[in-house]
Design goal:
It is a single chain. By secondary structure, the protein is α/β, with parallel strands linked by helices. It folds into two domains: 173 residues, Rossmann fold, CATH 3.40.50; 166 residues, Rossmann fold. It is built from eleven helices and 13 strands. The strands form two sheets. A seven-stranded parallel β-sheet has the order 3-2-1-4-5-6-7. A six-stranded parallel β-sheet has the order 10-9-8-11-12-13, with helices on both faces. The radius of gyration is 21 Å and the shape is globular.
Amino acid sequence: MNILLLMDPFIKVPPDHYGGIERVVADLADQLTRLGHDVTLWAAPGSRVNARVEPFGREGEWTRWSNIRNVITLGGRFLRAPRRFDVIHNFGRLAYLAPVLARDVAKMQTYMRTVDPANMATARRLGARRLRYTAVSAAIRDTGLPGGGDWSVVYNCAVPSRYRFAGATDPATAPLVFLGRLDRVKGVHHAITVAERLRRRLIIAGNISPLPHEQAYFDAEVKPRIDGTLVTYIGPVGDAAKQALLGGAAAMLMPIEWEEPFPVVLPESMLCGTPLIAFRRGGVPEGIEHGRTGFLCDTVDEMTALVARLPEIDRAAVRADAERRFSDAAIAADYLRLYEQLAIGRCH
């Protein structure tokens, strides 16, 4: 198939550090290419995948004007190549599809965050045809269902060969890990509380947000509790450092304070054999089988108590579940089934 993947140009594909969906798009592009499909990626300048890359926009720019300019730019591209692609798969703004919504070409719109159902109504008014919506979890899909349309769930992926299985890690003595953006909603302050209560080492990795209120949160509620012994912050991590960090952890803590769609770090951790202990919010419970690949809870007290149960988890089972459900091969196959249905007109 001739497939177009389309991504907002705010972060290049793949990202240097933070950028969950950008990493998924890169892995999907590479896997589809390995399977013999002709893949084109429209994304930020500097994007590099094993497919044809046609950059647009400006990396790091996210303003009302830049979004309008990007829509106009892509509209011109679609006009110049009306029948170039069998499937157009958009991971960016739905507005990017406006020039082709009414055209007889297969289109897929993937949502990584809470959906505004009004967007589906707008697409219908613009005469949308052969458009399929997907969401990275059932929790996200359910926010879009009131707007109508055809919906499927396809989870985020990670590449098994990038993450070595660490089956010998001792769940009783290895450190706990927090990996994610250091915003309040990610709950790193709760992870620190768990570590302090248990006197258990915690390693924190991730980006500090440039937003003033998030920097103030980090400075007031996180930084003073980092002592370099019990609680350590190592900054953003790339693939090699991430593998070592996750593989050497007894568990990854995910005490989220928001409806997390489906974090890429979930399959990344599981591919190392490292279970998660997570708050039961958003799409996270869909990725964790309680008592088998990790634990789900609702409070810091519960999370603290569950650390003692980590020896019950078979790390080999965690890895196997991640390979079966969230590998790049499995997720590419899920998308391809939908592409094929769209291409022959079974979805509408």
